[in-house]
Structure formats: C-alpha cells, structure tokens
Structure prediction request, 295 residues.
Amino acid sequence: RLLRRSEKRKAKQQQHQQQQKQEEEGDEEEEEEEEQIELETEQERESGVVACEDDAVVVDIEHYHEAADKQDAEEAARLQKQGKKGARRGAAVDLSPLGMMRTPQFYMLFAVYVLGPMAGFFVIGSYALFARADATFTANFGLVGGLGALGNAAGRLVCGKLADLIDYRRTMLLVSLLMAVLEYVYFDTRTSYTAYTLVTVLIYFCFGGLFSALPVATTDAFGTTYSGQNYTIVFFASSIGSILQAVLLTTLVNALSFEHIFLIMGSLALVAAFITFAFKPPGYGKWFALTTTYK
Prediction:
C-alpha cells in the first residue's frame, strides 16, 4: 500500500509539473503574440492605418499621405543616387502630385509647356491682325484658320507617332526648334500668301505636336499610379501660357513691331528647346543627349 501511494504521489507531482510547464510555455507564446501585435500596430500607424476591425481598415488620411510622400521622396533620392552611378536605366518611379512638385524635373517640364505653347498661342491669336497690319496684303483668314486647325490635329497625330519611334524628348526638342525657326521667319511671309498660309499652318502643327508629347512625358517622368492627377497639374502650364499671351498681346502690339514680337516668341521657343535638351526623368544618370534613348 505504501508503495502504491508513493507511486500515485509521484505521478500527481509529475502531472502537476507538466501542467505548470505547459502554462509557462503558453504564457511565453502569449507574450510573443502580444509583442508581434504591438510591432504590427506601430508599423500600421506609421503607414497611416490606425485600426482594423472585422476586416475593415480605418486609415488616418493625413498620416497616410505623409507616409506616402516620405516614401516618394526616399524613392526619388535612391533612384537619383543610383542614376548618378550609372546603375539604373529604364525603370520608372511613381510619385504623388506633392512628390512630383518636389522634383526639379516638374518645374522644367512646366516651363517647357508655358514657353513653347505660348509662342504658338501668340500666332494663333494674332495671325489675322498681323496680316491686316500690311494694307497691301490680302488673305482668306477663314481658310487659313481652317487649315491651321487641320495642322493642329495633324501635329498631334504625327508627333505622337514620332514620339513612339524616336522618344518623346527628341520629338519635343525638334518641335520646339522648328517652332523657333518658324517664328523667326514669320514676319517676312507677308510677301506671299502661300508662304504666309504655309508657315501659319506649320506653327499650328508644332503647337499640336508639343501637346501630343505631354501625357507621355508626364507618365514617363513621374510614374503611372498618379498619372491622371500629375498630368492635370502639368497641363495647367498651357493655361498660364494662354493667359500670358492674352494679357501681353495688346501691350506688345502697341509697344513693339510685329518683327520684334515674333523674334521674342521665337526666343521663348528656343528656351523651351534648351530646357528639353537638359531634361532627364528622375533616376536617370545622364542629362538628355541626342544619342541616348530612355525607354
């Protein structure tokens, strides 16, 4: 009997020890789970997610956008650093509107689409006034305007295709240079109705061609995730150019001759061409050169 009691007592002690050991292991697992949950919660707060209940995610919008902009800036800096070392070619970035406006490339592209189209806007708004300034020159301005509209549409189609074939930066550069040349010779076209009509239509062509490259330029430079918002912001540059043209048209016509005005507009197109030549998307290692294509 004593032996059986001793064995039962030992068995109970072993069972009790096993239970204690299991409880201790369970407590350790619970502590690890709590630590993991706290870590995940902290990460979610940093990314803007503040609660998850019944598969519903609650987001702190302000912190979420702050985190996204921070990631954008870090990504742009990393890609820029890689590009300077020549380690990156052809990869795209995805920048939010705020992240885009923190890059110098945004202001370069914005300037191109203020200056380049402004030269076109000026001719579009004054080609008839310019022709009527010479009493000996006659023209069918309705026909010229209609052909100009066709030139505008043709420029968008041709330059859009050209951008696919030779890269949009080359296309923007060539169109800006052609616009500058046309502006420089435009004053002398009143000697011939044919020359006047042809150069006017070509300026319309360049005007449309510049805009055909804008969506591609915005998407290639700043990514596809926010492309709609980014394009809207960059496109606002053309509105500024249109407003400046409308405000300055009467002032310049009264203060200067048309010859000097077209020289100024041609110079603006040349500045746009220079900025286009210097433009590179975020993360590329070299400034744009005619011998380099970024895909």
Confidence is low (pLDDT under 50) at residues 50-59, 82-91, 285-295. The chain has nine helices and two strands. The longest strand covers residues 49-53. Residues 2-47 form the longest helix (46 residues).
